[in-house]
Amino acid sequence: MDLSSLSVAELRRLQTKVETEIRRRSDTAKKDLLKRMQKLAAEHGMSLNEVIGQEAEKAPAAAPATKKAAAAKPAKKAKAASVIKFRHPENSAIGWTGHGRKPQWVIDWLAQGKALDDLRADAAAVTAA
């Protein structure tokens, strides 16, 4: 095949077709290999998961799809609970993490010329003790 005679658009179409065919053949090869490995393990009285040390039994067709889906989407990180760093001076049930917009009671406190450190949750516990 002489690629020098093809236009850029034709080369891109060819590239897309080649990438698709490579993916298809790779998937087929993986499935075939998985079936052969499962058959070999069964001949020895074991499951493939037992051979490779996995605890949970997985369906053969689901294993490659799961890996592909996991590669496509990154896992979401669980948000850690926000820790209250500042407490309201009169009502300790009201708090602020120090992130985001300041609550009005913090703004009022600072407007009176008082230090933000006086509202620290750990400082209030030390003062009360």
UniProtKB/TrEMBL annotation:
Name of the molecule in the record: DNA-binding protein H-NS-like C-terminal domain-containing protein
Biological source species: Zoogloea ramigera
Pfam families documented for this protein: Histone_HNS
Lineage: Bacteria, Pseudomonadati, Pseudomonadota, Betaproteobacteria, Rhodocyclales
Domain DNA-binding protein H-NS-like C-terminal, residue spans: 76-121
GO MF assignments: DNA binding
Superkingdom field: Bacteria
Family annotation (SUPFAM superfamilies): H-NS histone-like proteins
